[in-house]
Design brief:
Oligomer: single chain
Shape: globular
Number of strands: 13
Largest sheet: 5 strands, antiparallel
């Protein structure tokens, strides 16, 4: 439903609600009494830390006489205990636990898995307090803003709670997210205690100094304050909607900025069923396996094309409506990937396809997984296994989580690091795979990811990826036609791949000023001393002709126009030289292959 445009905000809204620029950072103001709260809070946190340390020492002593099964049981029990303590300690530690579920470099895998199921559903705070909070933020009585505002929220979490209601002015159904009171003060106190503890630990434990705990806490602090800035979340949602404007089957709620501030967010209420509710999906005529592939493609688009991704894409944040669209909600936690890093990720994909373990190791250094001077050798056997496992037959292929778990163990034992952005990416991919397996037991991430990456590699307009593809295709001995056909074959397994459009874009780029170096490579390939590879060209034309989006004239027109330009004089001269040389050396018969290409085109 189209959101009506409001000419001005309702009378009395605050500056933040009107979307005005606020220079002050979103931090708790100074408080003279905070010192005592820090001391009390620090004592409580230290008590939990001391208990955990004692349990760890006792477990270590008992481990010598226990079976491996008993040791794993003890570790699982301690992980559950720590998770429960985080819930008891409140919002900051719930978020820390969820963050730790992505940090295989900081915790053993047992703890990582336990934190991954950490839920932040805690009892809601009083609606009377929520109403007062809305009125303070938006500057008007709740009943003047909304109609039939409910007595209880429809959902509550560690950072806020959500109410379903209607706008008084327009009657539109909306969801109103209200932040929990005193979050800024809670974060300030907790993080002050944790920074002190982290600095102390870094001074006394060498490998923790390498991990840089204080820096990790600083990054966590930044992300946490971004997540509770609801105007920033509204910006994120708008950017997502723009990114998916031409991508079918995805919906993002509209944000109502006149009714929003940094701590109150009003958005379009979208009806849908939870993505894991198979009964509802089937009742709506949704095919679960198809939906899973679509969901993975949506995520891959975020990661590899947009570089702007939802970093908290768990089942609770994905709905499906009666139009079979995926509805994405909750845009507080967002990650960004620079273009160069995305190009490097595609390069890693090529090394996996090539079974190039050394190239993949270099990728991990460039992506920040391995620090300069750090010994990467322990990773090599596990990475080799991961590459081989990803290419195994479907019935023998492990899941993405089964492939990453051994890597997680290596990262923890050898104190390797996982860059923050990749920790969220890995968590999202594992979460999506879990959803996929619930909906389709035969689902495998690589069956969707590899065709999509190949499609992206062939159709991506970015300079970095184009140049990397050309380096991959043009080897010293000439064009690697086998690799080209392999990539085309993989890409065609993605339903969104249109080879005709790719060929059209490729031709337009080759004849453009940017494509000069590629034109010269093609000239050397076609008009060098060797025979023109008419058979390969014919095979490529046959594949292109099978695509309904392929149009001969659309592709041929820019080529013909280019060949008639003065700039193409060198090509015309080399073509005449090639014909003359082949005629003189008795190789002119090889030119009969052109008939096969013409026949395929026509």
């Amino acid at each position: 439903m189209e959101q009506p445009r409001l000419s001005s905000p309702p009378q009395g809204l605050s500056a933040s609600a009107r979307g005005g620029v606020i220079a002050a950072p979103l931090r708790a103001p100074p408080d003279p009494s905070r010192r005592w709260r820090v001391l009390r809070r620090g004592a409580r946190i230290l008590w939990v830390a001391a208990q955990f340390w004692i349990y760890q020492r006792l477990d270590a002593r008992a481990a010598a006489s226990e079976t491996p099964e008993a040791r794993r049981a003890h570790e699982s029990a301690r992980a559950r205990w720590l998770k429960d303590q985080f819930v008891t300690l409140g919002p900051t530690f719930i978020k820390i636990g969820q963050t730790l579920s992505t940090r295989v470099d900081l915790l053993p895998l047992t703890y990582v898995d336990e934190m991954a199921v950490l839920q932040d559903k805690i009892p809601p705070f009083d609606t009377r307090l929520a109403r007062r909070f809305i009125e303070e933020e938006l500057g008007r009585p709740v009943d003047a803003l909304y109609r039939d505002f409910p007595a209880a929220p429809m959902a509550a979490a560690s950072l806020g709670q959500v109410y379903r209601t209607w706008l008084r002015e327009t009657g539109e159904e909306v969801a109103v997210k209200v932040q929990r009171p005193d979050l800024l003060e809670i974060f300030a106190v907790d993080l002050s205690v944790l920074r002190t503890m982290a600095a102390w630990a870094e001074r006394r434990v060498e490998w923790l100094a390498d991990v840089q705990l204080v820096d990790i806490l600083d990054e966590f602090d930044r992300k946490l304050h971004e997540e509770i800035d609801y105007l920033r979340e509204a910006d994120n949602a708008d950017r997502f909607r723009a990114n998916f404007e031409d991508f079918p089957g995805v919906a993002v709620p509209r944000m109502y900025r006149p009714y929003s501030s940094r701590r109150v967010l009003t958005m379009e209420f979208m009806h849908g069923s939870k993505v894991t509710n198979v009964e509802d999906l089937r009742a709506m005529g949704v095919d679960p396996p198809t939906l899973v592939k679509h969901a993975v493609n949506v995520n891959l688009k975020q990661l590899l094309e947009d570089g702007f991704y939802h970093a908290d894409l768990h089942p609770g944040n994905i709905l499906v409506d009666r139009d079979k669209r995926l509805i994405l909600v909750d845009f507080g936690l967002i990650g960004e990937i620079p273009r160069q890093m995305r190009a490097q990720m595609v390069e890693a994909f090529l090394h996996i396809v090539d079974n190039d373990i050394d190239g993949l190791m270099e990728d991990l250094v460039l992506l920040g997984f391995i620090r300069p001077g750090q010994d990467p050798v322990p990773l090599k056997p596990t990475l080799q296994w991961v590459i081989e496992a990803s290419q195994a037959p479907l019935e023998k292929r492990p899941t993405f989580k089964e492939m990453t778990d051994p890597l997680a163990d290596i990262f923890y034992r050898y104190h390797l690091r996982v860059p923050v952005s990749f920790s969220f990416i890995i968590r999202t991919l594992i979460s999506l795979e879990g959803i996929g397996l619930m909906l389709d037991p035969s689902f495998h991430s690589f069956d969707v990811a590899i065709p999509y990456a190949a499609k992206l590699l062939l159709s991506e307009g970015g300079r970095d990826i184009r140049e990397r593809l050309m380096d991959e295709l043009f080897q010293p001995e000439g064009l690697n036609w086998d690799r080209l056909f392999e990539l085309v074959t993989l890409a065609r397994r993605d339903p969104g791949f249109k080879l005709g459009e790719v060929v059209e874009l490729a031709v337009a780029w080759v004849v453009s000023p940017e494509g000069r170096s590629v034109r010269e490579r093609f000239m050397d390939e076609l008009l060098g001393d060797d025979a023109i590879p008419w058979g390969h060209i014919e095979d490529l034309v046959v594949i292109a002709q099978q695509d309904p989006h392929f149009d001969l004239m659309t592709v041929a027109r820019p080529l013909i126009n280019y060949l008639l330009t003065p700039e193409a004089s060198m090509f015309r001269q080399r073509l005449l030289w090639k014909i003359g040389k082949d005629l003189m050396t008795g190789r002119i018969g090889e030119w009969t292959g052109i008939y096969g290409v013409i026949r395929a085109l026509l």
